[in-house]
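Issue 218. Parser rejects a valid record. Input:
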Amino acid sequence: MTAMPAPPESTKTSLQQRLNDHADAHWPALANIDVRFRGTFAYIDAHLPDGETLPLMRLRYGGSANRWGFALYLASKDGYRDQFLPTGLTAGTPEEALDCAAGLYLDNP
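Output the parser choked on:
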């Protein structure tokens, strides 16, 4: 079994832009989204206007910029746990994942 490669630079740049654009359009309580990468994983933090940072989720690259595995940050575990999106799937678009995580941690707009 071959390990999935890390996302290419173009996908990393695209993911950051997509998540910030989606947050700007749908999540006014967020100042911005920060994405950092480690191997096949993208770790997403939300920054609030007061300067507070909230770890939200981890996305797992599966070879497509449009479909990522989804894990929520759980403060009780101080870590990430794979979850189902509202679609019932464990993978989806970055925007679906952001809506799910932000909807749990923030008031829905």
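Fixed in the parser; the record now loads. The chain has two helices and six strands.
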